[in-house]
């Protein structure tokens, strides 16, 4: 029950949607069933949501978003530009779960880090990928289940909360870096990961076990073209969430190379990881936990920022090493 309440709190924190305990009229009914499943959209009356073995603890947000009308991210009409589907690696009678759904919304960029995206080995019969990302750096980003991504919340707010802030003198252009008016507080912005309200123009404060102890400077303006080498460590840390922003002059690109990644273990998805956001900063970036990228990552346009995000939810010793520089 607590996991369902946590899912509701996560949705309520980032959207105007509210849940109340009731068994009357149209309502959601969670039960211990076979697998994880929910009808997409409102069905009327008692709407059943199954959270069975293996999905009770982490899939509450995913299945609740189905009930709110959200399809799988990999069912989007534009998905073939971002992923390859390998039916030959799937168990029998499951291919329909990977089908493109006509009319699935594409107002937001494709989000590998959406809570609605399957992981790379979902329903595999042979431990091989059923979903392969076109950009290899995003393979470990898929399969997130611990809460809404920024674009997940934006889609829900567009569907249910679009006019909540109409009566306030606050408009999306006042929010920086892809942020928009927060329907829970129309005088502030909802900000992408790594940016802080009220305007999404400063770095979000990080923490190590609830204390402001993240290593290094959090906001770095790059002025030298020679690569800067940085190593960061967390010893016997129970949890941490740390952010760093790299900024470049207007006519320069930023290059980031990850060369060390210790302690960041993963299963089918990354829950302890480093993320390097170097494109659309409102979107999820490449995440790394099991494997490191073989090549450098560059910003898409000159003067664009990079957000580096490191997070862990399991106790252990962690370390990362990277170099960063600017180039024309």
Automatic annotation (TrEMBL):
Tell me which PROSITE patterns the record gives: ASTACIN (PS51864), CUB (PS01180)
InterPro entries referenced in this protein's UniProt entry, alphabetically? Astacin-like_dom, CUB_dom, MetalloPept_cat_dom_sf, Metallopeptidase_nem, Peptidase_M12A, Peptidase_Metallo, Sperma_CUB_dom_sf
**GO:BP terms for this protein?**
molting cycle, collagen and cuticulin-based cuticle; proteolysis
Chief place where the protein resides: secreted
Superkingdom is: Eukaryota
Q: Does the keyword Disulfide bond apply?
A: yes
Q: What is the name listed in the Swiss-Prot or TrEMBL entry for this protein?
A: Zinc metalloproteinase
Organism, per UniProt? Globodera pallida
